[in-house]
Amino acid sequence: MSLSAGRTFVILTNTLTLIAGLILVGIGIYGIASPDVRLYSNIIPLATIIVGVLVFLISIVGCCGAVWENRTVLKGYFIILLILVLLQLIVVIISLIDTQNIESILNKGWQTAYDKHPKVIRDIEDEYSCCGFKDVHDRAIPKRSPEACTESPWFGYKTSCYQSLYDSYKRHQTALGIWGIILAVIQVLALVFAFILIRRLPDDEERERDYRSEHQRLVQEGRGDPGRGTTPYHVPGGRGVHAPYGST
After folding, report:
1. Averaged in consecutive runs of 10 residues, what is the pLDDT profile of the chain (248 residues)?
2. What is the CB-side half-sphere exposure of residue 159 using CA atoms within 13 A?
C-alpha cells in the first residue's frame, strides 16, 4: 500500500468513526430523555455520551495525524484508540452476556424511582399503559391510592409494567451491543491503516538523510557546469544550498 493510499484510508475510517461518535452522543441524549432508561440508570446514557465524545475527539486526532503525516501524533492516536477499543469490547461483551441480573436491576431502579422520583414511574405507566412493577398493585403510582392506576377512568391500565420494561431493557442492551461491535470493527480498520501509515512514513533520521541527499545532488549539479554560477536554494527543513543561476 502506498503512502498516499494509507493516508486516504486513515482519513476515511476516522471520518466514519467521527460520525459514529456523534451518533453515540445522540443515543445518550435520547437515553437521558427516555423515562424507562432513566429508571434503571442514568449512568448508561451518560457513559454513552462520554464514549461518543472521546471517539469524536480521537477521530479528529487521527485525521490530523494523517493529513500532517506526523508519526508522533499517529503513534499517540494508535495507542489511545487501541486502549479505547479494548475497553469498548470488554463493556460490550459483559453487556451482552449479562442477562441474569436484569430483573434485579429493574427492581432496584423501580424502588429508587418510587421513593425519590415518582414522576418517572408515572411517565412509564403512561408510556406503556401499565400499572405497578410485577403486578398492578406493586408500588404503583399514585402512592396514596395505587388502585387508581387500574380503576381511574383516565387510566384504567390492567397489566403490570415489568414485561414492557424487560423488553425495553433488552432492546437497548442489544442495540448498544451491536452498535458497539460495528464501531469496534471500524476502529480496528482505522488501527490497521494507521499502523501501515506509521510504518510507511519516514522518521526524523530518514528525513534528514533525504535532505542531505538532496543537498548533495543540487551541489553536484552546480559543480557539473563550471560556466554557471550558483544561487542559494531552499530545501524543506530549513537548509540553504546552492543551485545554478537561472534554475527555478
Report:
1. 84 93 89 76 80 93 91 93 90 75 87 88 88 89 74 73 90 83 91 91 69 75 56 46 46
2. 11
Per-residue confidence (pLDDT) for residue 119, from 0 to 100: 87
**Closest C-alpha to 139, from 102, 109, 168:** 109
What cell numbers appear for 169 in the block?
Answer: 431493557
The pLDDT value given to residue 224: 57
Q: Compute how many other C-beta atoms are within 10 angstroms of the C-beta atom of residue 82.
A: 15
Q: Which residues lie below 8 Å from residue 25, measured CB to CB, with a gap of 6+? A: 48, 49, 52, 53, 56
pTM: 0.71
Tell me which DSSP letter residue 73 carries. Answer: H
- Compute CA 127 distance to the chain's CA centroid, rounded to the nearest angstrom: 31
pLDDT at 191: 94
Among 29, 23, 21, smallest CA distance to 46 is for 29
Q: How far is CA 217 from CA 10, 222, 234, 236, in A?
A: 34, 9, 13, 14
Q: Which three cell numbers stand for residue 178?
A: 451491536
